[in-house]
User: Fold this.
Amino acid sequence: MFELKTSAATRAASRSLSQKQHINAAAMMPLQILLLTLLLVRNANGFVPPKSVPSSLARSDGIPRQMSPLLQLTPVDVKIGIWTAAFSASHIGMSAIRRQLIDICGNVAGTAGLVNRTDWRLPDIWPGDASGGQEIFPTTDIAGRQLYRLGYTAISFATLGSAFLAYLESLQQQPPMNHDSTWFVWIATASWAVSIASLFNPSPLSLVPVFVGEGQSNMKNEASSLIARNDAQKLQATGMTRITRHPLILPVVPWGLATAMSMGGQTRDFLFFGGLAMYAIAGCAAQDLRVIREEGSVGTVFAPGATLQDFFDDTSFLPFGAVLDGRQSLSRIATEVPWWALGLGVVVGYNLQLVLLDWLLRVG
Assistant:
């Protein structure tokens, strides 16, 4: 009995230490991105070759090696890096204090008299959620969440939009190099397909509502009795979330790297598209942090006390991680994945990628 208690205590202590390590790592992300930004600013005037060649860059015959283009930052490269870093840092930072920001927004909405206004309602044909029905701001919490999302979206457009404009400016200054990018296009297509298919797969981290048929929800809405919203189903691992708990965002990693290579693999390409790939990893880690903190606020599921930890324990960050350690099975994945959506995603993703690349090449 003593050994069992000791073992349980050891596991609890280990889990607590792991959670603290996750929290500390996530808390350092904005600082790390800020340091990267400062390094970019330091090189704002471009790369200046050293007067003497370091021994590590000298060949045996005494002739200096050519410096890698990735070490050269033009002023527009710096702009791309700064705005991409600002996009990542602001999102990760807002995610880290999401609960506090939602509370502030909710209190402001309550003070302004925006909460529980019966005249502000969704159309009856649109299924409301189980928390507030058809009202837009039924409670202070929901009002805070919605206003938080508006601010989150506004910052996205401002920072990411500025980074994209700087990237277009770079393309106009120096057109991309022509090369065969067939393989990279297909990698990007597969990434598109997974993200698109995930929109039809319930997930608490996807920001996509779950709609169910009649009798599967506790919503009472006569006008939309054939379909209702029930986000509680997001808390159960199913289909693509048995592969990874981040099927919507993680595909940005291969997409970003493949698109960077398709555009020539220059410094600006990795600063922008590669920066988005890095953000996808950091952003997903920040979402996991909210579960570790037992915040009860992830995606469109906003229910303190909900069993988010169960979903977290049943799924993995890395694709197929939960399958390899036995928590999930390939047979259940095969029967639950929306294959029709995956096929649709391949067709749509392939065309979207070609349109994007063609447009960017025309800009250059």
